[in-house]
Amino acid sequence: MEMKFYALWLSAFIIFIFILQRIFPIITGNFMLISSEVLIRPWILLTSIFLHSNILHLIYNLFALALFGTLLEKIIGSKKFILLFIISGVLAGIGSCFIYNAALGASGAIFGILGCLIILRPKGVVFVYGLPMPLFIAAFVWIALDILGLFAPNNIANLAHLVGLAIGLIYGCTIRKKYIQKIKPKQKIEIDESLIEEWERTYMKK
After folding, report:
1. How confident is the model at residue 190 (pLDDT cuts 50, 70, 90)?
2. Based on the structure, what is the number of domains in the chain?
3. CB of 142 within 8 A of CB of 128?
4. Which is it for the CA torsion 146, 14, 76, 131, positive or negative?
5. What is the pTM (predicted TM-score) of this model?
């Protein structure tokens, strides 16, 4: 399976777009997700994935994309990875339209990546607020925090996270049998019986 490092290329592209956002602020306004304009400009569901509001927003998302994206891409291949990234991001954007006036960022797509990894590598360790924990436990923490976030006003698109995570979990379940990490059975050591007989004749004489 040839790996094209799409996760890293995506990260570089997002950095480039962020630089353009700083130089030409009009880019953000024209291509971010505005819920009331989705029906007349549906492409903003896609373009908003690659936009970020500030440097911290960018760094957090790129760290997760480069790290977890590269890991998942290595497991399922570049084509399936990029497909999951785009579908998770777009569907997360659609979900956002129901409760947010506007949104931007790759968080929904990244949570799709994490959701798939939770299924394929549930015991992989991640740090959540500085605490190491297996992915399958981290999933419950993320879900709980995002559900709480739905009822506490903040600048985080929590519903986008939940939708992206759900898409990743569903996709991971559909491909689990093919990509689940298998434990190799212990190999049997075959011994030539004639060698045993020879050893008995030589060393087991009464």
Report:
1. low
2. 1
3. yes
4. negative
5. 0.85
